């Protein structure tokens, strides 16, 4: 298994103590242009690393916007995955619905094909259809996100409901945003949400999927402030294991 580190939140380069892993590959390209161009450079470099990584790469990044690069990398390697998205938020805004302007809130919707001229087309991503996506938890939704999900083919589950029978068939990308966890369990999150699943619930769900042999890659968004604590490091070790 190849461990890939993308030490960025948006275009912010993290200090080295933010994501406490020992990577085989660090994605750290020179960033130029506007926010979308910089995001494209990060995701293209991520896709190259994933495509070259071989069996089931493990990708750590500072936000969820790198998920498209992981998908594009798998596709370059001949794998067309469905996606299981563990997150405390929906990440299904568009530029028309976001009230904050925070691009991370568009992450899953971009992977599903929103604003292709800004995202998918620039990184060679073939968007994952909503019916091939599972959104696990997402207990904090803005009204526009809730309205979209009422009619979307994206399947919504609680974390304990995630198992091989409730996710799409075929290869899977498992995406874990650390803020899916109860904010009382993991301090220092950028966007904490109370009332979430326990670390044990999350790890058990991931283990159920990994046991199928269908997980093509695991992407962990380390959405906390620097520096990482012992609890953050323990979570990353557990997910890597």
Automatic annotation (TrEMBL):
Pfam families: Arginase (PF00491). It comes from Paractinoplanes pyxinae. Belongs to the arginase family. It comes from the Bacteria. InterPro entries: Ureohydrolase, Ureohydrolase_dom_sf. The keyword Nucleus does not apply. CDD domains: Arginase-like_1. This is Arginase family protein. Keywords: Hydrolase, Manganese, Metal-binding.
């Amino acid at each position: 298994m190849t461990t890939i580190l993308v030490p960025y939140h948006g275009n912010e380069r993290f200090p080295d103590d933010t994501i406490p892993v020992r990577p085989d590959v660090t994605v750290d390209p020179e960033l130029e242009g506007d926010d979308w161009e910089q995001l494209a450079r990060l995701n293209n470099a991520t896709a190259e690393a994933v495509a070259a990584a071989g069996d089931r790469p493990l990708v750590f990044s500072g936000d969820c916007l790198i998920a498209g690069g992981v998908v594009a990398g798998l596709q370059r390697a001949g794998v067309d995955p469905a996606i299981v998205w563990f997150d405390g938020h929906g990440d299904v805004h568009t530029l028309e619905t976001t009230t904050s302007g925070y691009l991370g809130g568009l992450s899953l919707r971009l992977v599903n094909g929103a604003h292709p001229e800004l995202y998918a087309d620039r990184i060679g991503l073939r968007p994952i259809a909503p019916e091939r996506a599972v959104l696990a938890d997402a207990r904090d939704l803005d009204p526009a996100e809730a309205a979209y999900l009422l009619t979307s083919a994206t399947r919504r589950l609680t974390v304990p409901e995630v198992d091989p029978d409730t996710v799409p068939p075929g290869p899977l990308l498992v995406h874990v945003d650390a803020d899916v966890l109860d904010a009382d369990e993991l301090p220092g999150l950028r966007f904490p949400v109370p009332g979430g699943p326990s670390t044990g619930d999350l790890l058990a769900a991931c283990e159920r999927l990994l046991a199928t042999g269908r997980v093509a890659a695991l992407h962990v968004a380390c959405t906390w402030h620097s520096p990482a604590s012992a609890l953050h490091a323990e979570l990353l070790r557990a997910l890597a294991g």
